[in-house]
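worker-03 picked up job from queue 'complexes'. Input manifest follows; two sequence lines, order preserved.
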Amino acid sequence: MSGHLAIIGLGPGDAALLTPQASAALAAAEALFGYAPYLARVPEQAGQRRQGSDNREELARARAAIAEAAGGARVAVVSGGDAGVFGMAAAVFEAIEQGDAAWRSLAVEVIPGVSALLAAAARVGAPLGHDFCAISLSDLLTPWPAIRARLEAAAAADFVVALYNPRSARRRAGLAEAAAVLLAHRPPQTPVLIARNLGRAGEAWRIETLAALAEADIDMLAIVIVGSSATRLLPGDPPRLYTPRGYRTASGR
Amino acid sequence: MSGHLAIIGLGPGDAALLTPQASAALAAAEALFGYAPYLARVPEQAGQRRQGSDNREELARARAAIAEAAGGARVAVVSGGDAGVFGMAAAVFEAIEQGDAAWRSLAVEVIPGVSALLAAAARVGAPLGHDFCAISLSDLLTPWPAIRARLEAAAAADFVVALYNPRSARRRAGLAEAAAVLLAHRPPQTPVLIARNLGRAGEAWRIETLAALAEADIDMLAIVIVGSSATRLLPGDPPRLYTPRGYRTASGR
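worker-03 finished. Artifact:
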């Protein structure tokens, strides 16, 4: 099979955070597939085909990209952030496993990117300085009880918790329930970072308290990082959040 | 205060994964601080001072870098991967909080990078396609019972689990205990990625089973990713690991 499929993380949006490896792979592609707003970030190039689609269509997009690569083309599938973190990479391998047996011999390369989580953390300091979890609140493909069980576990074991897909029009109660689970295990003044569109138009971030999270103005594009009991807020302009590297250091302060 | 401190993630080692923002910040620095093997990755530049140090000296290194920036210099502190994930960023903010009150007005910028975790995941497919945790097994600053409690929580709630600092000469039993905790909650054939030096000389990665993890040949520089119960191994050359985007998808296959 002569085609090639690259799954590319575009980073958070700022071109200065797109890796040279990702830039080279985008330039080498004959066809690009992706959620339309992500594709729009990639500079136009003569002779390169583009297939934008809606964000609910990951598996169909993956199949279309694989089929084109299997036909001999150099194809790229793009995701925001890192394609492996709640992005297109898992959808591509799922489509390969479920699809034509010949697809398993296709050359597939995953090109990592700076994830939204890492970019959000860097903007505010170092909230991921110690153990952390990433949990998607989307119940499109995962039953809510499984999501809730993970929230409970992460809250009880005092992980820093990053919430992906925190809210949608269809599902208003998930974030409030997540906040309640976390509040049962850590203080109401625990700092929470809410970040949106980092490195792009409409960039915004702010630090709230865990007590205010349930009612905070948040949409599906935001990423939320809830501090652990050790996470420190340094007031100032800008304020800073960091999680110390260890408990002994924190308690010995 | 006129100085500037940039905390820079160098990515996993391959220059093609160093972001343009990080490259520019490295070039603009008058003085570089870091763990010596990371500093060695940064191209030499005339007139730029360098201060390499041992990997046990994060806080002393952070204080020295802050002091130099507070004196008016443009200073960069480097970490491998992303500086915010078990890297230098938390040490710098800890030093600022504990240090001279004037340090709080220093301009500090954190420049994110492709973390070792994301690079390792990309190399093998998409094992971080659903909820995951990152846990350091280093008990230098965190008591082992706290680490163990996080392992128990992550194992019981079926997170994909990334282990940082999996083993050292001083501490041989931690990894075996972590493996036993995970084995109590997921099948012995659960796939495990062990990766080392990705993108650098001595790069190696392999897929083992959870049953084999306790006895695996692993050192402190490795990163380990243990699949959840949903993580799929696709045999082949190379083999692939991915975690489906949801449970319904996985069980509906």
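worker-03 released lock.
Chain A has nine helices and 13 strands.
The longest helix of chain A spans residues 58-70.
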